[in-house]
Amino acid sequence: MGLYKEIMEVAEIVRKDDNLDLYKKLLDLSSQALDLQEEISRLREDNGELKKKKIFLKK
């Protein structure tokens, strides 16, 4: 979760600087990054299952 961690570090710096609008946008961005990472994980899992099925069907 490197991207999420980096976004949260930047968000904390922005929060300390009292830029609330930018802080809110970074929190939204971090939420989107987590969603994307979860989707990538799910797609990789699906891809692995499909590859196994393909190998099984070839046999």
Structural account:
The protein is an all-alpha fold. The chain contains two helices and no strands. The protein has helices at about 1-15, 20-59.
List keywords for this structure.
mainly alpha, 2 helices, 59 residues
In short:
By secondary structure, this protein is mainly alpha-helical. It contains two helices and no strands.
Hey, roughly how much beta strand do the residues contain?
A: under 5%
* Morphology: rod-shaped
- Assembly state (oligomeric): single chain
How can the largest sheet be summarized? none
Distance between the termini: 38 Å
Range of helix content: over 70%
Number of strands: 0
Layout of strands and helices, then pairs:
Layout: H1 2-16, H2 20-58
